[in-house]
Amino acid sequence: VALFLQRAHRINSNxxxxxxxxxxxxxxxxxxxxxxxxxxxxxxxxxxxxxxxITIEIEQMYAAHKNLDFxxxxxxxxxxxxxxxxxxxxxxxxxxxxxxxxxxxxxxxxRGGGQRDAIEWVAEARLMLITALVDKSLLTxxxxxxxxxxxxxxxxxxxxxxxxxxxxxxxxxxxxxxxxTFLKQRETRLKGIxxxxxxxxxxxxxxxxxxxxxxxxxxxxxxxxxxxxxxxxYFYAMYSWFQEGVEAFGRATEVVIDGSDPDQKxxxxxxxxxxxxxxxxxxxxxxxxxxxxxxxxxxxxLNDRKNLAVALNYLGILAGEVGNSAEANRFLQESLDLYxxxxxxxxxxxxxxxxxxxxxxxxxxxxxEALLTESLxxxxxxxxxQGIAVALNNLGYxxxxxxxYTVAQKxxxxxxxxxxxxxxxxGIAVSLNNLxxxxxxxxxxxxxxxxxxxxxxxxxxxxxxxxALSALGGIAVCLxxxxxxxxxxxxxxxxxxxxxxxxxxxxxxFRAVHKxxxxxxxxxxxxxxxxxxxxxxxxxxxxxxSLVAEILDVNTNTRHLxxxx
Length: 565
What we know:
Blueprint: H1 2-11, H2 19-31, H3 36-43, H4 51-64, H5 85-94, H6 98-106, H7 116-122, H8 127-135, E1 140-141, E2 147-148, H9 151-165, H10 168-184, H11 195-204, H12 206-218, H13 222-239, H14 242-252, H15 262-281, H16 285-302, H17 305-321, H18 325-341, H19 345-358, H20 365-382, H21 385-401, H22 405-422, H23 425-441, H24 445-461, H25 465-481, H26 485-497, H27 503-520, H28 526-530, H29 534-551
Antiparallel strand pairs: 1-2
């Protein structure tokens, strides 16, 4: 920052900076990763551009992978060779040996760097050549052993890869093959005792994985798409990146189109299953129903029992979300039978837990507890931390329904602790929401609201609308019980009218508004709340963000009220 200011004031001695300018300058220096020459060249533009405009130009340069020549100047106090960043790069390029040039260019396919084994395989780079590039400051090795290249250097290398060697396609193919195989090799371990470690590995390589997936899809590489699908889909679900999942897997459906190949049909069924799941978690129930229905038909026709179990499972969860317990029970039981047939322990545990949760109205509470106890036992045996957290959460919710709030708190707090350790956003929000229910039942409305608010904040951030609406409904109930009845009715009206509210949330909101509306709104009838028109639903959806912003205003922050575990 000091270097930018020094150069900028030399060019424009009358330069005055606003707070926004200072933020933009800090952003520029971060984007340029502290490269002195790049910072000086960026600062030279204060002659004709504002700091905001310089920031935008650099961001666009990164996003579009072009306009490297933006970082240039015609000022005569800088040596000609240093008047453009490209000129500096060209000078360094000329000093490289032929094989060093080739490896340098091949490394441009990596995003965010790579581990040594990846670099050696994809770029066909011997350690001696990698070391030479490090010695010449074209590559760096961080404290974790990861090799990285500055983004501006990477863009320059990418230009040379195509212009000089004409081997971009070959190197991209190798990069794609490496990272899709990387995902394939981690499928089983993702659901076992190494789950946290594997999720971390995928997270560190996510930019390379996104690049590999994009290449596989645009080039129609069916095998690579199939290799990557399960681990990437599970990763998206665990990190609650539902919208990215929809976009990435949606593009794949345009490629996997061979209607005569059973393997491609199965792959399409698997893609549609994940898409249905991502839509379901966002509260887009009709889209989820359609996609899961298409998946079910494809997989049934193929008698693909392994993947059919997953589609049936998600259809069961969907049925439970919209209040069809009988259908939820049927789908989940069919899924459980298939998981048992294929001896998929993770699938058995997952389905038992959801069978108890979503088919609860057709089960006695002690039956639900037995299913959840079996689920927990299996998850512990295979070491699946996320699954253990799911089972504990559902045991806690089951105890809450029975009015055993001490046991409910214990299970839910254990679940929340595990989910925070894993870093599972939606799971964290679910446990927080259920703890809100417990404290509400105990009459501790301030603590209850604190849990609901944190749940709402997370759920809104990840666009898990059904969960956000559940938290909103909980906040409204607490407000009503604290005599803030008008605000409570306002929130409950939105919850009841919003198309993403699930059956459980609607039932809670209906019970609350049934008590409040006659007192506050005697001229309105209950059906006005419970049978919204299309216009009312659109209005509720449009108002959602502004209402959430009001509720999460920093002046009403209650996070400090949440007890420490």
